[in-house]
Design brief:
The chain is α+β, with helices and mostly antiparallel strands. It contains two helices and three strands.
């Protein structure tokens, strides 16, 4: 919801998941179809691994990964 954006909730969630990934020394994989999300995740240290057409080419599927050992 728009009224919940900008309150830092997503950031807190991501940072908590990052800490857990560091504890177990495992990468985090995620995907998104929104280009704005790719930039947000890259800001938090995720690497874009692939972009492929989705739903007949009307949008793209973006696969990202976060490597805790690189942080």
């Amino acid at each position: 919801k728009k009224d919940m954006q900008g309150k830092g909730i997503g950031k807190k969630l991501l940072l908590t998941v990052h800490e857990f990934a560091k504890m177990i020394n495992k990468p985090i994989f995620l995907d998104t179809h929104k280009p704005v999300n790719v930039e947000i995740y890259k800001h938090f240290g995720y690497e874009l691994k692939s972009t492929v057409p989705y739903k007949g080419g009307s949008t793209n599927h973006n696969a990202l990964v976060y490597y805790p050992e690189r942080r």
